[in-house]
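Re: the 50-residue chain
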Amino acid sequence: MAKKVVATLKKEGGITYAKVIKAVKSEKTGAYTFREEMVPTPMVQDALKK
């Protein structure tokens, strides 16, 4: 099960961005790594589904 974190950040040109941090489990080692993305706020749910 992956842990998800979303932080809302500043506006640029009328678009609010969010920093999405996901813990992704490696299939080879079983260790968790963290993947960070900056996405527009309306696209947060799409980013979490990948």
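Strands lie at 4-12, 15-25, 32-40.
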